[in-house]
RNA sequence: GUGGGUGUAGCUCAGUCGGUAGAGCACCUGGUUGUGGUCCAGGAAGUCGCGGGUUCAAGUCCCGUCACUCACCCCA
């Protein structure tokens, strides 16, 4: 008995068969289209990076528990990238001399984290990253917020399906030190408690805060402040607000793009000001979809230049879950539009010739790779999603014609070889009209 | 790292009181010459997750293990 190797993909990674790949590709292409319509340019980088670029600024959990690491033959310590931001900061720093700042960049890298797979989380995912580098203007925040609206709109989501909640690390620090009157040494620990605020019972939060050294009075003040939401903005000293990118956005028309919410914190250490997170509003998928923020010091790890950045990462797993929850997933694309079927094996050459002219006419066309009975081939063509087959028979061909059969309308016509492209196209258009006419789909 | 659920054909699952495996769908072939979806007939396809134990006998009982999955932790 031979011992076979496993066919399942490595834990937490996925194979994408053509139908799933088609769905993913269609979603991505819409998103790329939106990004490029706003002048974002695509870049890419290596999946392997020196481990140090994560040790410096990513969250501690990522580095200590979730990094895939390896040592190369030269003894260099490397990691599979768990996220793209450190890489893009490195690329920006290394090429700053030839770039015209500010730049708008995007990418769609696969990223790896060693963790336990569950809904919405795997070990390898693809994450669209969109970032702006080289500007401290709050216009960058507005650009990113508008981009998020456009991207979600571009994949069919309506504004009631999601919420864009924003905060600012500068404002949060002020809330914690000026309003709650915490010592600065507690900032990090208490920020983490704020991050978990919605997910835990009050007693648990109080206990954790107490363990850090937060007094009951301070905790109550914190709870009261967070419950007040945006009202806290008025209490924050104006000198602080001048240092907050987000505060500047919130006094413009663009304030309507977001909801200020002091409970938004996010786990990465490198965020310095604006932070934001998009949530699904559906009760069935009530979760954070993606998020990002401003990181003004990350490029500074690589060079003396001060190049601020702001951006976000949108992962494919949560995005596909979101689209599925709201019934927004596109249908997989059919294999081909047309299959050209020779009735006899020795008509394969004519069939390929007809197929070539159909492709020249812009139609996705295939021919059978193995000879089978005509009926079988029509079945296969139908299952492949072709709406038209072209039948190349001996008598027709000798007389300079072929037969086109529309699998949707069942209409069948004999046409001259010269006009086959136009005839198939007309047949496809007719079938499409029949479908939309009968379906009565809403226009929006 | 912690806890729960589930592992039988490609898929969804059944399998009684232990007696060495079934259905539906899908797939392939045929129902005579160049016409699909229905119908009919036939066919192929299973290390019952894996290892051990109990037993004359294990898909079934016991132990272990692995995988998948959901949740926690944390986060995207």
UniProtKB/TrEMBL annotation:
<dbReference type="InterPro" id="IPR004516">
    <property type="entry name" value="HisRS/HisZ"/>
</dbReference>
<dbReference type="InterPro" id="IPR036621">
    <property type="entry name" value="Anticodon-bd_dom_sf"/>
</dbReference>
<feature type="binding site">
    <location>
        <begin position="270"/>
        <end position="271"/>
    </location>
    <ligand>
        <name>L-histidine</name>
    </ligand>
</feature>
<feature type="domain" description="Aminoacyl-transfer RNA synthetases class-II family profile">
    <location>
        <begin position="11"/>
        <end position="342"/>
    </location>
</feature>
<dbReference type="GO" id="GO:0005737">
    <property type="term" value="C:cytoplasm"/>
</dbReference>
<dbReference type="InterPro" id="IPR045864">
    <property type="entry name" value="aa-tRNA-synth_II/BPL/LPL"/>
</dbReference>
<keyword id="KW-0067">ATP-binding</keyword>
<keyword id="KW-0436">Ligase</keyword>
<keyword id="KW-0963">Cytoplasm</keyword>
<comment type="similarity">
    <text>Belongs to the class-II aminoacyl-tRNA synthetase family.</text>
</comment>
<dbReference type="InterPro" id="IPR004154">
    <property type="entry name" value="Anticodon-bd"/>
</dbReference>
<dbReference type="GO" id="GO:0005524">
    <property type="term" value="F:ATP binding"/>
</dbReference>
<keyword id="KW-0547">Nucleotide-binding</keyword>
<feature type="binding site">
    <location>
        <begin position="83"/>
        <end position="85"/>
    </location>
    <ligand>
        <name>L-histidine</name>
    </ligand>
</feature>
<feature type="binding site">
    <location>
        <position position="127"/>
    </location>
    <ligand>
        <name>L-histidine</name>
    </ligand>
</feature>
<dbReference type="InterPro" id="IPR006195">
    <property type="entry name" value="aa-tRNA-synth_II"/>
</dbReference>
<comment type="subunit">
    <text>Homodimer.</text>
</comment>
<dbReference type="Pfam" id="PF13393">
    <property type="entry name" value="tRNA-synt_His"/>
</dbReference>
<dbReference type="Pfam" id="PF03129">
    <property type="entry name" value="HGTP_anticodon"/>
</dbReference>
<dbReference type="GO" id="GO:0006427">
    <property type="term" value="P:histidyl-tRNA aminoacylation"/>
</dbReference>
<dbReference type="GO" id="GO:0004821">
    <property type="term" value="F:histidine-tRNA ligase activity"/>
</dbReference>
<keyword id="KW-0648">Protein biosynthesis</keyword>
<dbReference type="InterPro" id="IPR041715">
    <property type="entry name" value="HisRS-like_core"/>
</dbReference>
<dbReference type="InterPro" id="IPR015807">
    <property type="entry name" value="His-tRNA-ligase"/>
</dbReference>
<protein>
    <recommendedName>
        <fullName>Histidine--tRNA ligase</fullName>
        <ecNumber>6.1.1.21</ecNumber>
    </recommendedName>
</protein>
<feature type="binding site">
    <location>
        <position position="266"/>
    </location>
    <ligand>
        <name>L-histidine</name>
    </ligand>
</feature>
<feature type="binding site">
    <location>
        <position position="113"/>
    </location>
    <ligand>
        <name>L-histidine</name>
    </ligand>
</feature>
<keyword id="KW-0030">Aminoacyl-tRNA synthetase</keyword>
<feature type="binding site">
    <location>
        <position position="131"/>
    </location>
    <ligand>
        <name>L-histidine</name>
    </ligand>
</feature>
């Amino acid at each position: 008995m031979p011992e076979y190797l496993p066919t399942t993909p490595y834990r937490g990674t996925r194979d994408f068969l053509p139908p799933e790949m088609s769905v993913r590709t269609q979603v991505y292409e819409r998103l790329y289209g939106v990004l490029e319509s706003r002048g974002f340019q695509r870049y890419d980088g290596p999946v392997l990076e020196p481990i140090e670029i994560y040790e410096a600024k990513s969250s501690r959990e990522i580095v200590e528990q979730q990094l895939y690491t390896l040592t190369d033959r030269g003894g260099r310590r490397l990691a599979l990238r768990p996220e793209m931001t450190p890489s893009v900061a490195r690329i920006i720093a290394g090429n700053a001399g030839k770039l015209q700042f500010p730049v708008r960049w995007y990418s769609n890298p696969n990223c790896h984290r060693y963790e336990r797979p569950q809904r919405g989380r795997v070990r390898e995912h693809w994450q669209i990253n969109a970032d702006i580098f080289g500007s401290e203007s709050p216009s960058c925040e507005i650009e990113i917020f508008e981009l998020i609206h456009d991207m979600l709109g571009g994949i069919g989501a309506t504004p009631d399906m999601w919420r864009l909640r924003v905060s600012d690390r500068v404002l949060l620090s002020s809330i914690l030190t000026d309003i709650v009157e915490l010592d600065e040494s507690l900032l990090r620990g208490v920020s983490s408690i704020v991050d978990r605020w919605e997910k835990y019972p009050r007693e648990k939060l109080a206990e954790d805060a107490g363990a850090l050294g937060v007094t009951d009075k301070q905790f109550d003040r914190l709870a009261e402040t967070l419950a007040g939401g945006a009202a806290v903005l008025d209490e924050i000293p104006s000198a602080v607000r001048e240092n907050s990118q987000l505060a500047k956005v919130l006094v413009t028309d663009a304030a309507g793009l977001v909801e200020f919410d002091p409970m938004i914190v996010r786990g990465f250490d490198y965020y310095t000001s604006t932070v934001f997170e998009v949530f699904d509003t559906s009760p069935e998928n009530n979760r954070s979809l993606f998020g990002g923020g401003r990181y003004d010091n990350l490029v500074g790890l690589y060079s003396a230049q001060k190049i601020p950045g702001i951006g976000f990462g949108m992962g494919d797993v949560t995005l596909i879950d979101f689209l599925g929850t709201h019934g927004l997933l596109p249908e997989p694309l059919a294999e081909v539009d047309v299959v050209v079927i020779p009735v006899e094996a020795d008509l394969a050459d004519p069939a390929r010739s007809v197929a070539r002219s159909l492709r020249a006419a812009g139609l996705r066309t295939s021919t059978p790779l193995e000879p089978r009975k005509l009926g079988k081939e029509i079945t296969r063509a139908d299952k492949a999603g072709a709406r038209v087959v072209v039948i190349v028979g001996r008598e027709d061909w000798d007389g300079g014609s072929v037969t086109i059969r529309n699998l949707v309308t069942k209409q069948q016509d004999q046409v001259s070889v010269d006009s086959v492209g136009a005839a198939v196209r007309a047949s496809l258009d007719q079938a499409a009209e029949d479908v939309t006419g009968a379906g009565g789909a809403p226009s929006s």
